[in-house]
Write a structure and sequence with these properties.
- With 275 residues, the chain is of the alpha/beta class.
- It folds into 2 domains: 2-164, 3-Layer(aba) Sandwich (Rossmann fold), CATH 3.40.50; 178-274, ProC C-terminal domain-like fold.
- It has 11 helices and 10 strands.
- It has helices at 20-31, 47-56, 78-86, 105-112, 144-154, 168-176, 178-195, 200-221, 225-234, 241-251, 254-274; strands at residues 2-3, 11-16, 40-43, 61-63, 65-66, 69-74, 95-98, 117-122, 132-138, 158-162.
- Strands 4-3-2-6-7-8-9-10 form an 8-stranded mixed sheet, sandwiched between helices.
- The chain is elongated, with a radius of gyration of 21 Å.
């Protein structure tokens, strides 16, 4: 990607990186009416991908060149994040929201080379369907207004919370990697249903709706560990079928396995950020 064309009229927001997450944000912003298409831009180096985005989102400025913009979302692979940020200060960009995994705000600020508001975030893949979970952390120059701005961008594709930056690795290990844990559990449940004689399509339909329904209950009534425990207890009759199944999971230390998985993903995020 190159930076040039200062003669172009400035956009309200440029998304640098037209991959799945960049497109998810673009679609969410348009659906939420955050800005009209003409005020949004996507920078994508792959010509075929650019053509696809231009066809899907008429009116959005889709290019391979970073131009003037009030704000920018850095949605590139971590190895390219500092290179992208190095040229933003010369283009009138006032705010940057980075979703590059593991790249700290201090590294981005150093690459920019001038005081600029940087907000770092860790969204997850359900943002692609408007059901994402994101956390944001402020860099040294970011103000309350900058955090509100970042939350408005990410809020177009789901729920956003604030955390200190040193907790973003834990966010990565929990909600960033969390969809994969859920998908694995869904796979296992479907296979278990098939093993008990259900046709695979029947088992799949039942499992997907069960997971969606359980999540909706928590969305409506509360999502803390206490709330989840109360709902679990409400469907667990003494000596009943659910109790029999949960006894197996407790016996295999499901809680401990999940805790180890999140800890391993968190540690890996820290390693990537240090490299």
């Amino acid at each position: 990607m190159t930076t040039a064309q200062p003669d172009l009229p400035p956009l309200r927001l440029t998304i640098i990186g037209g991959g799945r997450m960049g497109e998810a944000l673009l679609g969410g912003l348009l659906a939420a009416g955050w800005a009209p298409p003409a005020d949004l831009g996507v920078v994508e180096p792959d010509p075929q991908r650019r053509q696809t985005l231009a066809e899907r989102y008429p009116g959005v400025r889709v290019t391979d060149t970073v131009g003037p913009s009030e704000g920018a979302v850095v949605a590139v692979k971590p190895g390219y994040a500092t290179e992208v940020c190095a040229g933003l200060g010369d283009l009138g960009v006032a705010r940057v929201l980075s979703i590059a995994a593991g790249v700290t705000t201090s590294r981005l600020e150093e690459a920019i080379g001038a005081p600029m508001a940087v907000v770092r975030s860790m969204p997850n893949t359900p943002a692609q369907v408007g059901a994402g979970a994101s956390a944001v952390a402020a860099g040294s120059h970011a103000t309350e207004d900058d955090l509100v701005w970042a939350e408005s961008v990410l809020g177009s594709v789901g729920v956003t919370v604030r955390v200190p930056e040193d907790l973003l690795d834990a966010v990565t290990g929990l909600s960033g990697s969390g969809p994969a844990y859920v998908f694995l559990m869904v796979e296992a449940l479907i296979d278990a249903g098939v093993a008990q004689g259900l046709p695979r399509e029947v088992a799949g339909a039942l499992v997907v709706q069960t997971v969606a329904g359980a999540a909706e209950i928590l969305n409506r009534t509360g999502a803390s560990g206490t709330d989840a425990a109360e709902h679990r207890e409400a469907v667990t009759s003494p000596q009943g079928t659910t109790a029999a199944g949960l006894a197996v999971l407790d016996g295999r230390d499901l809680r401990g396995i999940v805790a180890e998985a999140v800890a391993a993903a968190t540690a890996r995020s820290r390693q990537l950020g240090a490299s």
